[in-house]
Sequence to fold (289 residues):
Amino acid sequence: MKTERLQEFIVLAKSLNYTKAAESLFISQSILSKHIKELEKELQVDLFHRSTHSVTLTDEGKLLLRSADSFMVKIEKATSLLAQNTHRTEGTIHLNCHEQTLCERVLALIKDFNKNYDSVDIDIHVIESAPDITAIEGADLLISPCDFMSRISDKFMGKKIYEQSALLAIPPYHHLGDRQEINLEELSDENLIVPFSDELFGPYSRNFFLAFRKSKGNIRKIPAFSPQDALLKVELGEGIMIIPHHLKRRLYAQSRPLRIIDEECKFPVYAYTKAENTGSAPSLFYNSL
Fold:
């Protein structure tokens, strides 16, 4: 059913006058009559009772009018949103992105947006310091490994966009070197290197506390300034490290990864934006994630 035919039906159903309806639709009365008959044939029902002096709705016509009105409102809203989105597809999006979130999935999302909205520039600034919600200041969006959902105010919106599996990075000649997978309970008496160890809302700290609990407290934490600093400590044999899956390509030559089988050991990725961005290019990008 064409929306034009439905619109013509609505106009006639409300005026119940072919002459007035045709005039308001800027078509001839004969064309309007033809279109209404085609619509009735398509629906296989009579929509109007016609006589020499009057036009009235059948019960089926009344039912269609009730449904058609709400349908056309939805169509108008959708058309309006499409027009707004077309307008939004120009400009620059300032994106702050924590280095440890740049996995293949997130990069693919950014590439897809660039492909679909090539008139929008995404200015990406990679953050290597400890994650914090204040990193959204001076930017339109923040992609972070930290869950700030319970801490953000009405000024922000946030959502989880991805969840990476975790690996255990071990140094050369480590006693677990012949293993392919491991569970956190087996890390008792190990030194676990933890980047951003003071950031309680970060995934490295969260996974440390998970390993601490699973190993019944028999695990030692070694703080590190950054993930790359921690990976160097692993290579030098100072301890082991729980890493997001994509960081395995950053391991030094003699280090190797083991699969962690504990399902709750994950590295989530969150997106945050300012509520004031609603109706703008940053909002379009946020909604595409």
User: Anything to note?
Assistant: DSSP finds eight helices and twelve strands in the chain.
